[in-house]
Amino acid sequence: MNSTFKSIIFTGIGLAIFFAISWLFISIVPYLLVGGLIIYIVVKFRKYFNNKNKGSNNQNGTETVYESSNVQADYYNENEKVIDVDYKEMD
Q1: What residue intervals traverse the membrane (predicted)?
Q2: Which range of residues forms the domain containing residue 29?
């Protein structure tokens, strides 16, 4: 076989495979979009109804609790002894 003829055959086969995969992808995408949309809607409805049921049982959903702490006084204790360290530069 001539190398030119062989390259034409491989190019034709490659294009045929490319177009077959493209056609398959384009024909499947609408089904995937519809399926994804249905799953999204079902999840949103389930989440809405679960939150609605939980909200009716608990009238006071969240309470904010503030604790006073004296973190700065604990961390920056000025009565502690500070150790001063001199560093020697090494070459």
Answers
A1: 12-43
A2: 3-55
